[in-house]
Amino acid sequence: MAQPRRIRASARDPYGTKHSSNVGRRIPHSDKVATDDPNRTDILITLHRFELAGIEIDERAVEIAVKLTRWHISNAEERERIADEERGRRLAEAQERDCWVYYIRCGRLIKIGMTTNLASRFSSIRPNEVLAIEPGGAERESEMHQRFVNLRAGGEYFHPGPSLQQHVTDLRAELGPPNWTASTVPDGEDWFPGEAQPSTIT
Description:
Largest sheet: 5 strands, antiparallel
Strand content: 5-15%
Strand order of the largest sheet: 3-1-2-5-4
Radius of gyration: 33 Å
Helix content: 40-55%
Shape: rod-shaped
C-alpha cells in the first residue's frame, strides 16, 4: 500500500503547513494564542523568534510577544500613513514645480490655463496679449476656474468681467507685468498699454 506523501517544509513554509488540514497542531505554541486574534500569525512568529533566541515560552513571554507584535503593527501602520503623506506631498510639489497659471487675451476673451512650458504653450495658442502669469499648477488653475465660473464663456475661456479684470490687475501689481511678446499676435487692441489700468477692458 502506498504511503501518504509527506509534506516537506520550505523556507517560505518552515512547518510544512501550506497543504495541511491540521495546521493548529503543527505550528509551535499555536495553543497559546486565540484562533480569532487578528494578529495571531504575527504573534506566533514573534514567539518562534523568542524561542530561537533562547527565551522560555511561558505566559509572560506570550504576553510580551502579544504586546510587542501589536506595537510593531501599529507603528508599521503609522509609518505607512506618514510615508503616504510624504509621497503625496512630493507628488504635489512635483506637479507644482515649474508650473504656471497664465491669463492671456484671445480676442475679447481671457483664457486661464496652466502649463509647465510657457514658450511651447503660447506658440501653440498664439494669444493676442499675455495679461498675467503666476506660479501654480492644476489646483490653482481649477481654483481660478471656479472663482470666475460666472464669467465662463466655454472651457478655459472667460468674459473679462470686473472681478477677473481686478484679479489680473492685482497679479500684475504683485508680480509685475509679464515681459512676454514672443508668440503673441498683436491685434492693435492692447488692454494694458504702458501703465494703463484695466478700466480699458470693456
